[in-house]
Amino acid sequence: MRIGVPKEVKVREQRVALTPGGAASLVRRGHQVVVERGAGIGSGNTDDAYQAAGAALVSREEAWAAELVAKVKEPVQAEYSFLRRDLILFTYLHLAADRPLTEALLEKGSSAIAYETVQLPDGTLPLLTPMSEVAGRLAVQAGAYHLQAPQGGKGILLGGVPGVAPGLVVVIGGGVVGTNAARMAMGLGARVIVLDINHHRLQYLDDVFGGRLTTLASTEHNLTEALAAADLVIGAVLIPGARAPHLVTRAMLAEMQPSSVIVDVAVDQGGCVETIHPTTHDAPTYSVDGIVHYGVANMPGAVPRTSTAALTNQTLPYLLALANSGLEALSDPSLRLGLNTHRGFLTCRGVAEALQLPLTGPDQALAARA
After folding, report:
1. Both ends of the chain: CA-CA distance in Å?
2. Separation of alpha carbons 303 and 42, rounded Å
3. pTM for the predicted model, two decimal places
4. How many distinct structural domains can be found in the chain?
5. Exposed/middle/buried for 128, CB within 10 Å: 0-12, 13-18, 19+?
6. Closest Cα partner for 345 from 357, 334, 327?
7. Are residues 149 and 15 in the same domain?
8. Which active-site residues does the annotation give?
9. Cβ atoms < 10 Å from Cβ of 347
10. What are phi and psi of 359, to 5 degrees?
């Protein structure tokens, strides 16, 4: 099969979907890999390295013309013209918060498989996990930076100093993002509160961190009290494939201390903060009611070398399966859950519910191949 790797065009996005090592694995198995010139430069992967791995360097149009296209971020409007009926697209999509892209994929009839909805039998999300780990850790770094007074923050050093109390980080959601955010915040010396609706998850976090953080059931009362004391709030809520619920309302901002910071990692799924909207690395923050909001939707793009390697480690086995078998690889139940659109059908329940569009089961959609 011919696998294309275009250069990412989202603002300040320097990750690439495939490392030269990953390309070599595909080539060794008889596949043709075409990489857009310069696609890997931002992540430290040179054109020469791809050529040495057996990949061909091509134009953007040629990369998109491949049978199977691997990306990192969802196509932006300038890329919609590359979508077509015989295309298998493998990337992060986050369609529940993106009606225009959903409609474009349906209109073009592309078979779009979303990294974030590939799900193992135990409920884990193997292709979302590496970027969730990165984003959770980055969220604390970004929050700590924007708490500095010159950045509009309240002038708090999260770790404090002897004789001065450390800052308080409130993490909403105890999943992969939340766990990594908590680990990073405690590493800086901050006090940490994690809220979650799953009591077993709170037990796990209490055990794994040896009681060094505070766990709270995610009730409206507990959340409001935690927000009032917080210096930094990290939104780490995830419902696979679906739009994130607004747990922090605008009214709750009035309870927060002026110039506190919110980093909503769930922004690419609509955000768990009512007042969040996507921002870019060029202009990452804005203020609402005196609270600094950070809404960068591709946070791991800030560390593209780490992120690209971590992502390829997890996506390569699935990419190999798709290259070897095409859509027949969707016989794997975990990979089938990743299918979001096919031949004009919307096949992801979370997206259908969020956008109020008709849902077609993957089996039915895949049967309509003609």
Report:
1. 20
2. 9
3. 0.92
4. 2
5. buried
6. 357
7. no
8. 94, 268
9. 26
10. -105, 135
